Amino acid sequence: MFLIPTGNLFGAPVSLYQWWVWNQIPVTLGNFVSGALLTGLALYATNMPKKAATMEISLGTAETTGVAAGQAAEAD
What we know:
Number of helices: 3
Structural class: mainly alpha
């Protein structure tokens, strides 16, 4: 943003239209796209939502309760 206007002040053959069309607009669009993608991806990767911790508790079915009761009876 500094070199082209400075060159223009020193007599470089660059018009305001050329500066905007061939420099400012592509640079600005590139900054928006790369900023959104790269910054967004980096932030998402570092702050990724974590999966909820799950704990499975077996309440027992008729089969397992009977087996457990039979084992307890044998232990006595």
